[in-house]
Design brief:
It is a single chain. With 344 residues, the protein is α/β, with parallel strands linked by helices. It contains ten helices and twelve strands. Strands 1-6-9-10-11-12 form a six-stranded parallel beta sheet. A two-stranded antiparallel sheet has the order 2-5. Helix 2 packs parallel to helix 4, helix 7 packs parallel to helix 8 and helix 8 runs parallel beside helix 10. The chain is globular.
């Protein structure tokens, strides 16, 4: 009998006392750098339609500076496809301990501006959007030549609707996965930068938290679509080189994460501050703090510090990814951080 990769990983991992969780991208079906993937090989209609400042509304496959060919989360054909994939994984490989879902989101603030999204949004608010997409937002060019968004009259309602779509999908995915394998863990990864994560339609906070009290982009209804309670295992990306709040206040650096349309700042954007804020928005729900190892190639001692802080202030550690440790032989720094964090 020839074992598949998941069979092999599960068998060997369990022999070593490890849990094995399969990690999968969800709303991404192609690679724009290489023109590969399902949106290139048979399903171009699945590609998200993005509202760009210079070209208007175009398929995301035409944004060659963006590697991920993301999907419109409302595309029913694709949703059926990806749910079948998730169910097949947990059914065919029952020894897996869980799933970790990544990219369960919109591509960014520019997505999705397809005719389907317009129709569904109009149904949600119960009226026609006369000027689409300008009634959502419009692009303006600053003196430095960079573009920024100017919210339209439906902007906040649009954000609310998008996060409802993602939360509804998460609830459906959990239901389908658990029906296929009740014992499997249902988990997800998101970036830790909650103050700007509304740009991708994701509210990973607890339903007990009201973002409208802290953030101007949140409607009073936005809090109804937190999905922390749907998650058995949650990992987040504390991908910051400032470790403590004190250190961040000295550098006061601006952070521009992958999914952001503009730079951000504040105590959210250091490891200690992120963990503190995440505790507040997640309420009693636990999380693992994630680290990005290649951020510390030039300063390995700080790798130990970020491991220690994540272990002390969160409920575990997610390393992205182990190849960076191997490449630079950073095992001593990993061991030191785990010792200081109380895990060795």
């Amino acid at each position: 009998m020839i074992l598949t990769i998941w069979d092999t990983l599960s068998k060997k991992g369990h022999e070593l006392g490890l849990e094995i969780h399969a990690s999968l991208n969800v709303f991404c079906a192609g690679h724009n750098y290489f023109d590969r993937g399902m949106v290139y090989s048979g399903h171009p209609e699945w590609a998200s339609m993005v509202y760009t400042p210079d070209k208007g509304i175009i398929p995301i496959t035409e944004e060659k500076h963006k590697y991920g060919a993301m999907i419109n989360p409302l595309n029913e054909e694709y949703r059926t496809h990806i749910l079948n994939v998730l169910k097949e994984v947990v059914t065919k490989y029952p020894d897996l301990d869980g799933l970790m879902l990544d990219r369960v989101r919109y591509d960014g603030i520019t997505a999705d501006f397809s005719s389907l999204s317009r129709k569904k949004f109009e149904e949600y608010i119960g009226k026609k959007v006369a000027n689409f997409p300008e009634d959502i937002f419009r692009w303006t060019k600053n003196a430095d030549g960079k573009y920024t968004t100017q919210p339209g009259k439906y902007f906040r309602k649009w954000l609310e609707w998008r996060t409802k779509n993602i939360t509804d999908f998460m609830a459906l995915a959990r239901k389908e996965v658990k029906a296929a394998n009740p014992d499997v863990s249902f988990g997800t990864y998101t970036g830790a930068w909650y103050p700007s994560y509304y740009e991708v339609g994701v509210n990973f906070a607890s339903k007990e938290y009201d973002p409208g009290k802290d953030f101007s982009w949140a409607t009073p209804e936005y809090k109804n679509y937190g999905y922390a309670e749907l998650i058995d295992l949650y990992a987040t990306g504390n991908y910051y080189t400032d470790i403590t709040i004190e250190e961040y206040r000295k550098t006061n650096r601006s952070i521009w994460n992958e999914t952001d349309s503009q730079a951000q700042s504040g105590t959210w954007y250091c490891v200690e501050g992120s963990c503190q804020h995440l505790r507040q928005i997640l309420k009693g729900n636990k999380f693992m703090g994630g680290i990005l190892v290649d951020q510390f190639y030039d300063n390995p001692a700080k790798l130990s510090e970020t491991i220690e802080m994540n272990l002390r202030r969160s409920d575990g550690l997610m390393v992205f990814d182990i190849v960076h440790i191997i490449t630079k032989n950073l095992w001593k720094e990993v061991e030191e951080g785990m010792k200081r964090g109380g895990s060795l």
